[in-house]
Amino acid sequence: MECAQRRLNVFGDEFLSTQRLLVITPHADDETYGCAGSIARIKALGGEVYVVLVTAGDLAHYEDGATKLVTHETRLGEFESVMRLLKVDDWEVLFTDAKTHLTLDMMPRKELVRVLEADGRLSIDRVRPTMVMIPAPSYNQDHEALFRACVTATRPGVPSQRHLVPLVLTYDNTSLFWSFGQDRFRPTCYIDISAYLDLKIQAMRLHASQVRPPIYHGSPESLELATRLRGREVSVEAAEGFEVLRALL
Hints:
Keywords: Zinc. By secondary structure, the protein is α/β, with parallel strands linked by helices. The protein has a single domain, classed as LmbE-like (Rossmann fold, 3-Layer(aba) Sandwich), CATH 3.40.50.10320. The chain has helices at residues 2-8, 13-16, 30-44, 72-86, 109-119, 124-127, 141-153, 197-206, 220-233; strands at 20-25, 48-55, 59-63, 66-70, 90-95, 131-135, 167-171, 189-192, 239-247. Helix 3 links the parallel strand 1 and strand 2. Helix 5 crosses helix 7 (141-153) and helix 8 runs antiparallel to helix 9 (220-233).
């Protein structure tokens, strides 16, 4: 029983309170879908959280049978509001040009890895995180390219020569339901965010340009249902699911 209880508390308050978390998000709102509740919980417990937004650009959205332009200034304003709501320690935006947005798959991986690993203001070498959360691969080309770059940037190395991140996790996204076979997202660990579900949904609503009707899979209402479903998978009110890529505990 004692051993089982210890396993249940791997992501308990004591552990999370000591974490220095680095979240890498392809677009503004992906961090909210995937791990806003975990960010809020870690911050409330006294841990540190840093967020790197890789790309924000102008984008035409479908709306009522037509398209509507959402500017990168709008997306950045929404993102910054979410960062302040979640009380993160710092955040960085890497690319805001139209050429890069939604074309990370066209960027040489070496260049993207260099920024994430060493050159960025909040790079892995500079933040020296104890935990990194990265997007799971999906049908979105930016998510796929960033996932591959993050795997490279967090590769094992000699600890005396470069920082080795002990815990590397991929986070959920509403787009992941539309995948098949081995590509399907299968969480292998969960963080209980029952006390932070309302804050997660509030953060989603701050991404106002992305809010859609309740029936849409990425709406705030659907996000709440999905988060509660993750919770039911592990018998809590609400949870965020992750796949563990590395756990050096």
